[in-house]
Amino acid sequence: MTSPNTRRPSRCGALLSEPYLVALGFGANLGDAQANIRRAVEFLRKRGVDFVALSSLYATKPWGVEDQPDFVNACALARTDLAPRDLLALTQTAERALGRTPGLRWGPRMIDIDILFYQGLDWRDDKLVLPHPEITRRAFVLHPLAEIAPDMIVFGAPIHQLSRKFGSDEVKILTPF
Fold first, then answer.
1. 7,8-dihydro-6-hydroxymethylpterin-pyrophosphokinase domain: from which residue to which, for each copy (predicted)?
2. Among 7, 39, 105, 112, which one carries the catalytic annotation?
3. Confidence class of residue 94 from pLDDT cuts 50, 70 and 90?
4. What pTM was estimated for this model as a whole?
5. Contact of 29 with 71, CB cutoff 8 Å
């Protein structure tokens, strides 16, 4: 993980001394949802996020607000030297650039990008909590994440184990990324 000499992210956000592994979750259910996720990945890639693994695209039922179109979801592992708040700012910029507008919490959206995990970091402030506190309750995150990072430990358990509590009827693989 980190050595005593490795600089950790500050609250104000700063470049880290080495790239860190992060897990990102993507979701969309308006417009061409699959294309929206692909565009979000490309947007982040062009701004220095180094993707090392992309899950398949999954069809999932809405979570939170159920009266809306099904979602397309995916997860990715990436390396970044951005501090958590800076990465959050970049993901929010991507969302706005790709057409996301303020709306109902858990409602329909062109794109949603969540930071799920940041290597070796527990983070809590008024804008961001890491690991994402809802990971263990969301099949649409656990199944794609288990595809690319089955042994990643979150909240004391490997992702593949956490994903087993949800049946395969919760999510359906649509296509490889």
1. 105-116
2. 112
3. very high
4. 0.86
5. yes
